[in-house]
Design a protein that fits this description.
Layout: E1 4-13, E2 16-26, E3 31-35, H1 42-49, E4 57-62, E5 65-66, H2 72-78, E6 79-82, H3 94-99, H4 114-126, H5 142-155, E7 160-164, H6 172-187, E8 191-195, H7 199-205, E9 208-213, E10 216-221, H8 223-226, H9 229-236, E11 238-245, E12 248-256
Parallel strand pairs: 3-8, 3-9, 6-7, 7-8
Antiparallel strand pairs: 1-2, 1-4, 4-5, 9-10, 11-12
Helix pairs in contact: 4-5
């Protein structure tokens, strides 16, 4: 299971700083929530870890190796990725879409092995879409497409997973299903990092939160230590508090700061 470490990472786009001096470590067996307002740099952080963006300075280590020394396929086998806002345009069956998650393991023009097929089946079952396997993925609802794409990431069977807004387009029941699934994977030893806007879900399920604001990591730690009234005010610009309802953490916003 991979460990991911960032030291002094700066990322700029078109000469505009997006991330500044990011130092953090992500460990196997933990469910990390990456939170912060729009434009804080959350997705940029994920893309930098995956090698999709090149930091202007600093180092990113994956299992102790500089990520720049790893091929794209090496990273893809170690870290599965579910990007935000993906759209499906090609008329693939759901099963074939999920099978794309096995590409990092396949040589060119090779066929799926029994292990590949078992991984695909397990992913379909975990995402609760096995009954949709023969459907054209472009005909699915937004929530069903989101679960199919999650299954594609699960099919990689990587030791780590980064998911960007995995709850978008899901109804409340399926939001709970997805968060329970991610938590179970972390409890089983996987490193799971999720970019989340639902702070209540983040507080309820995540072991640790990373709070980004204007490209900087301004707080990290257990949810109750990160989600304070002062940070709600200074980072999110709202009045809010973290409470418990029957033992379940809930975020209660009361208005603009």
């Amino acid at each position: 299971m991979p460990r991911i470490e960032l030291s002094g990472v700066h990322v700029s786009q078109d000469r505009t700083p997006i991330l500044r001096n990011i130092d953090l470590a992500l460990y196997p067996g933990e469910f990390v929530g990456i939170v912060g307002p729009n434009g804080a740099g959350k997705s940029t952080l994920a893309r930098a870890i995956l090698g999709l963006l090149t930091p202007a300075s600093g180092r990113i280590l994956i299992d102790g190796r500089d990520s720049r020394q790893l091929s794209r396929a090496d990273v893809a086998r170690k870290i599965a990725y579910l990007a935000q806002g993906q759209s499906l345009h090609w008329p693939l069956s759901v099963e074939r879409l999920v099978a794309l998650g096995r590409l990092p393991h396949l040589a060119p023009f090779s066929k799926l092995s029994e292990r590949d097929r078992a991984a695909i089946e397990a992913a379909l079952t975990a995402a609760n879409i096995a009954h949709l396997r023969s459907r054209d993925a472009t005909t699915l609802s937004g929530g069903e497409q989101a679960r199919a794409l999650l299954a594609c990431a699960l099919a990689v069977e990587a030791g780590a997973m980064i998911v960007d807004e995995p709850l978008a387009a899901l109804d409340p029941a399926h939001q709970l299903d997805v968060m329970n699934l991610l938590k179970q994977r972390a409890d089983g030893g996987m490193l799971v990092a999720a970019i989340l806007h639902d702070l209540g879900m983040a507080a309820r399920y995540c072991d640790r939160l990373l709070l980004l604001h204007e490209g900087e990591l301004v707080a990290e730690g257990p949810p109750h230590a990160v989600l304070t009234p002062e940070r709600f005010r200074t980072v999110y610009g709202i009045r809010a508090r973290l409470e418990e309802l029957s033992g379940t953490p809930v975020v209660v916003p009361t208005g603009r700061a």
